Each structure stands twice: as C-alpha cells, then as structure tokens.
Amino acid sequence: MMCRIDKVIQETPDIRTYRLKFKEEGIMERFNWLPGQFVEFSLLGSGECTFCIASSSTRKESFDCSIKRAGIVTADIHTGLDEGDEVGIRGPYGNWFPLEDLKGKNLLFVGGGIGLAPLRSLIQYCIDNRADYKDFTILYGARTSADLCYKDEIADWRKDPSLKVILTIDKPEETWKENVGVVPKILEEVVKPVVANTKVITCGPPIMIKYTLLSLDKLGFAPKDVITTLEMKMQCGLGKCGRCNIGSTYVCKDGPVFTYEQLKKLPDEF
Amino acid sequence: MSVELFVTDKAGLTKFYEAIISKNETYAPVEKFGKYDFKRVSSFDACNPDAPIAQTMSAKPLFFPRSAKIMKYTADHSGTSVKETDEDSLAGKRVILGMKHCDARALQVLDKVYNWDYIDTDYQRRRENTVIISARCDKAETHCFCTSLDYDVEHSDAMDVAIVNGTDGKVFIEARTEKGKVFLKEMNIEQRISNNEFQVTDETAPAAVKQQYEAFAASFRLKMDYTEVNARLSKIFDSPEFENVSANCISCNTCAFVCPTCHCFKISDEKVKDTGVRYKSYDSCNNGYFTLMAGGHNPRPVKYRRWRQRALHKFVYYKERFGENLCVGCGKCTNSCPVNISIFEVVKQVSETVSV
Known about the structure:
The complex is a heterodimer. By secondary structure, chain A is an alpha/beta fold. Chain A has 9 helices and 15 strands. Chain A has 2 domains: 2-93, Elongation Factor Tu (Ef-tu), domain 3; 99-229, Rossmann fold (3-Layer(aba) Sandwich), CATH 3.40.50. In chain A, β8 (136-142), α5 and β9 form a beta-alpha-beta unit. The longest helix of chain A has 14 residues, at 206-219. The two termini of chain A are 30 Å apart. Chain B contains 12 helices and 12 strands. In chain B, 42% of the residues are buried.
C-alpha cells in the first residue's frame, strides 16, 4: 500500500524519522499493529528495507519509521524522500513485545542509538496505559549527544514525574552535564535497577546488547525477564525467503522479539 | 488385477508420450550441449524423458522461476502507481514428463514451506495445475543417495503417474494419485487397452515392479543412515570440521541454483527512468552478502559458517520446523560443483566427529 510522508524529523546527523499516512482513505484506521512489529518499506527503484514501527498504535493518526543512513537504500531514502513523497508499505509483520507479561511489573528500558526506535513504540504504548505498569525507567545512550534520537520527546518524558529517564554518552563533551560511559557501565553503576518484579526491554547495536545482557546477568536478572528485539537481514517478511533464519527460527515470523531465555537456545548466529 | 497398474512396451510408451505431448501443454528435458533443461515441447523427438540425472537441471524453475517479476511500477514527480505484472506463464494446466522421482519428491518438501503461514498462491496454482509423470530410475548414478533419506522412494506418491521398466521389455504404468487416475482416463486408457497398446496387469505385475525397485536399490554406491545423521548434526554446531569440509568452496552458489529444494530468494528493484520492475530471484546462503546488514554487521561473515548453515538447514533446521530433510539425495549439487564438494561426504565427515 502506498503511504504519503506527512513529516520528516531530522533526529541526528544520520537518523531521520518519517511520519507516514496511508494515501488511500480508510486504510490508516484499519492498520493495526502492536509495539515490536515491523514493516517492509519500499522506495520504488531503490528497493525494500525492514524497519520497526517506532510509534504506538495508541496514537494512530499516523505511524513513524526512524531510519538511520547505513546502506544503499537508506542513503537513497535520506537523500530522495521528503514531506509529500510516497513510499510503499507492507505489514505489519512479526511478533510483538509480550504486553500481558509486562502488566503489573516495573519496566526498565535500555536503549542505544537507533535501538530506541522499537522501544519508543512500547514506551508510548505503556505511557498511554500507564496504570497497568509500576516503576518506569528509561536508560538511553548514544555515542555523542548529537546522536541521541527523539530529543523533544525525551524532554516531554522528563516532565512526567512517574518516568525516570537517564541519558548517557560514550565520551565527555564540554556542554554535557549528564552521565558519561557506555550503557552497560551506567546500568551497573548509576541505574542499579531493582531486580524483583522488573522486566527489562533492551535494544541497541549488537555490541551493546551483548554487554548489556552480561551486565543484566550480573545484576541478577533472570533470562526470562529480559526481552530484546533482533535485527536480522530480512526481505520477504513472510517466512519464505530464508534470509532471517537462525536455526529453525524465522526471525520475521517467530520474532523479532525474543526473551534472553529464548535467545540462549538459538545457535549463536545473530 | 489392478485398475491403476497397466503394462505396455517401449513402443506403447512412446505412443503414450506422443499422445500426451499432442494433447497437453507439456514440459520435458530438452538437450543442449549434452545437458538437459526442462522446456515446453511440441514433439516427442525434441525431448528425452529418460535423460540422465547427472546432466539434468531440476524442474524447480517450472514452479519457482529463476527470476520472476512481482511488481511493475511507475514513479515520477507526479506520484507513483503500481501495475499488475504480466500473466503467469506457468499457471496453466500442464504435464511434466521425465521428472526423476527425487525431483518430484522435492516439490513435496517445498510444499511445506510454501504452504505455512503465508500461502504462496502462484506456487500453489502451478502445483495444482501440473500432472507429473516420472520414470523410476533403473540404476543409481555416481552421486545419488535418495534411498538413504527418510522417504519412501519405492511407493512415492510425489508423481501422479509412475513409469517402471520391467524385464523382457515390459513397461509398467501406475497412477499414484487421484490426479494421476483422472489423467490416465483423460488420456483414453480404455481405448489404449482395447487397441492392445496397454494391457491390464495380472497378479505377477506388483512383484515385477518390486523386483525392479530392489535391483535399483542395490545399485547405490552411497548409503548412510540419515536418521542417525540428523541426530548427530543437531549437536554439532561448534564443530571445527565445518572449516575443513568447506575449505575448497569458491562460493559460486551453483549448488543452490541446481538444487531442487533450495528456495531462498532475494527481492530486487530495477528502474530505468520512471519505470521499474521488482524481481524475486534465486539467492543462496553461500553468498557472502546473504545476511550482510546495512552498517556492516554480518552474522555469517565467513565461508565455513555459511556452509554450516547450508548443511544444517538441510538436515537439522528444516527437519525441526517442517518434519522433512531439505534434501532428496539427487546429487545434482555434487554433479555440478566445480570443486567437487559432495554434500554426502560433507555430512558424513562432519557427523563422524560426534557420537550419537
């Protein structure tokens, strides 16, 4: 289905958020998704890419895809697409965060760089259903302060006294007054999360996820209480093309959301 | 007396093939430079239903084309529009002659992946509209190992009509599916019987068919218990042996191209000026870029990991997911491999490094 770009937000030097609405009337109302699901995003002529939906269906007038300029198609998207342009969208595909399991729990979100995008969908969803959840902590890091996404929205989150937001960057900067250090370090030394009755939801670059999982393990979190969303090369999104296979798992159908407990059972190939 | 098992001779079979070709949209192996590929044929002389396995491409492209248009579009400053693709040239009622039983079996294996969750309707229509006529081999070729795998080669219903050579020039023709029975009726089986081209069989026929199978089964050079192999391979992910067995591979992907069960594909766009086409084309897990993501992360960055994926997808992962080996033992990959890597030997060598 064709979508029209309603708004483009330059989040960081290499990340843009595209706010999309279906061109044909009535489709937006029928387009239902849950946090964690993804779409296949087409720039006709360049190709198709897999992006998570970075906003919540509780805010349904449009939906967001935050896109980092990383490869051929994403470079074409950044240079070629602006407000009013059209893109093709297939989806939503994949599974979603285990929303029922999160009810009544403390939520700890741990995000790095563009990895905040899938978490943002869930964060918005949980904020819109705030009464269902207990303590709410967001730890978000990026390489530099310029690489932090959703700055305006983070400022809004900080105005809400029921949300605790902790930011960090990898190296010190003159004007930066908050935490400095990689995400797993800040997690252990600054956040020091309560383990009891807490679910952790994490997403970020592979190296961050790797060390964050080790830190969470050290802090005493059970693997079943740690949830992440995997990035794998995908093309069809329909459990056919074979690209996203990890063992007998199709990340596009059985994932992209997995608990650490599930990940431990998969062959080490992601 | 069987109503589905008939007997004829070479001349009767040729007449039968000729009639099939004249009355149906028929595909059969056609020779070019000593190799065979399945083509649309209009006369019996143009094809060879008895083409050897080693020189024959599989019939997979008749169900899953090497490259297919999935979408056409125009995109310019005034906006975009998506158009229907051309009509599917493989969707009509048709007959395939000369498919080996391993090739036919491969389609049953592929049905599993095409029919779970999202149904590939193009594939399904092509399957439904095709009658498969398959001659059972008389003798195994060098790299054949179908009888080692866990499917019933002897009584396979992967083909609609099976042809079996008996002794004394006898040829048995057997409908193996409902579709096959209907097809034989459509091909005037009764008239052929009254013409004496075909005869109904007596009680000795099943024994003769069995005898042919036993002689065929005894002709295999390669034999291995794949139930045991499945069990061994399922706990071998970290074996360093994968590096040794894949060392010679030049990542040309020929094995996946000729394989009747390999089904990985890529989706790509080609656009000239304002008009573009989106294609679905064969791809292979042996390609270095197969899992390469934008930004540079690649879960299978080295060759042995890609070979491990190939071997384990065939003999562990697909089996776990869909209950079948993603291999039918046809030996095509080995016949075509430019550096002589045999999947049978790879699996044997790797699985021998662990005990069950």
